[in-house]
Amino acid sequence: MSERLLRLEDVTDRVGLGRSTIYRRMGAGTFPRPMQLGGGVVRWRETDIETWLSALTAERRPEPTAGARPAA
Questions:
Q1: What value, to the nearest 5°, has the Cα angle with vertex 49 and ends 45 and 42?
Q2: In terms of domain of life, where is this protein from (predicted)?
Q3: What is the pTM for the complete model shown?
């Protein structure tokens, strides 16, 4: 099964970041880099974006406090 490749427009829609922010984060090493397909065409692997989103979500998840009761 082939992996789905995303255009920049698809990536910005999915992650909620603008083009400049994505490229700035790529430069800082905090966002997945795209594949170079030739002729100036780049695409991101959908799995790379999903993995990045999952890690970001896990990072923002609050730690349970000691003695806290689970929500009913």
A1: 40
A2: Bacteria
A3: 0.76
